Amino acid sequence: MSNLKKTDKQVYKIIQNEEKRQQETLSMIPSENWFSSSVREAVGSVLSHKYAEGNIGSRYYEGAQYIDELETLAIKRAKKVFQLPKTWGVNVQALSGSNANLAVYLALLQPGDTILAMYLPDGGHLSHGWSFEPDKAKREADVASGSLIYKGGEKKVNISAMLYSPVQYKTSPKTHQFNYKAIAEIAEQYKPKLIITGGTAYPRAINHKKIKSIAKKVGAYYLADVAHEAGLIAGEAFPSPVGIADVVTMTTHKTLRSGRGAIILAKQELIENINRAILPGLQGGPHNHNIAGICVGLGEALTPAFKKYAHQIIANTQTLAKELQKQNFKLVTNGTDKHFVLINLADEPLLGRPFARILSLAGITTNYSTMPWDSRPPRNPSALRLGTPWLTTRGMNLKEMKQIAKWIREIMNFASAWKDLEFSEIEEKAKKSKDIKRIAQEVKELCNRFPLR
Hints:
Its EC number is 2.1.2.1. Pathway: One-carbon metabolism; tetrahydrofolate interconversion; Amino-acid biosynthesis; glycine biosynthesis; glycine from L-serine: step 1/1. This protein is α/β, with parallel strands linked by helices. It has helices at 2-7, 9-24, 37-43, 65-81, 97-108, 136-145, 159-163, 180-190, 208-218, 230-234, 268-282, 288-301, 304-326, 352-361, 389-394, 398-415, 423-432, 434-449, and strands spanning 26-27, 54-55, 58-59, 88-91, 114-118, 149-150, 165-169, 194-197, 221-225, 247-251, 262-267, 330-331, 340-344, 364-365, 367-369, 383-387. It folds into two domains: 46-301, Aspartate Aminotransferase, domain 2 (3-Layer(aba) Sandwich); 304-449, Aspartate Aminotransferase, domain 1. Strands 4-11-10-9-8-5-7-6 form an eight-stranded mixed beta sheet, with helices on both faces. Strands 12-13-16-15 form a four-stranded antiparallel beta sheet.
């Protein structure tokens, strides 16, 4: 960045500070990862200069022959990585996972159609039709009712809730896992046009065949959103919905670590409508530089090293889960099948938001999260979500997971003295704490043994 350092010292300094933060702290937000230098070079290339509105062989702008070549290669690699049937196609132009999902809705549905998706506090995603109930008493009554159906709150948070009629299924109040019989009954009752699985905070594998069977019985399409699991699927470490669901969407920056963007996989008769939903339905020209990053990342996903990485993520996360349980933390669903765990902090001195901030000051970056059957709002929930993709990319192993679990309990123990303080007061106490500073230094020393390259 020698040129940037000369021409814009302010931006250069911000980037350098952020890189220092990433190098010296444990990034445990499951939706984040570190991209290879090759991916970063592709994303920062001259491809960002070119406007290429349209699809391969059918652009509205001249001079797009190399963009066609790039997009063709990205699609070819996606087909190989995700082992697509010959009857399936690929779109790599969606700018994000939410855009990808919205494109699927636009292609397959009419405004007002019913969609059936997972309840957000149980692990679902904003783009799956989320609307929030701001009335605390109503939220508490909903939890107390034990109903496995959520028909939405007063505040339509996401555009998907504004355009369509979402009904959301909840997890079992006992296991916090999918109740497939209940989902089938809800589908039979509401006759959705689309059933969606996937989300941000569901730590268990989903039985795609069961969901597809439910969808088929009610005449619905099945969309599997695997934004979080894409890299695990690519590395053959996790079950794939490809060939089972009608459509599969994913982001590319999480476990797939292929830069920012999204991929849509679908049956060929659907992908053509989805392409039109992307352009002209939602977007103009694609971000060619991001497609280049995706293409490079998909190339990396075809290597034996990537498969080893994907399997190590699972091993690391399951070890982290067991070690957290040894430290007497309660885990939602009592464990995990994939790349993150969800800690139930309801019986701990501190809940998700303040504890996440304290951990961050100690050099452990996580995020507070909703959890099943909890009436607390998403901005101040009871759970903490933490994962291992970035740590695994660093080269960390089971030994490091054990140490991290010990640090997390140690931090909760001495931070419990601040449990009755306001958030701002807790933050100030943590900033001044010698114990927090000591652990932050220990974390830094660990990170220095596993530098990011």
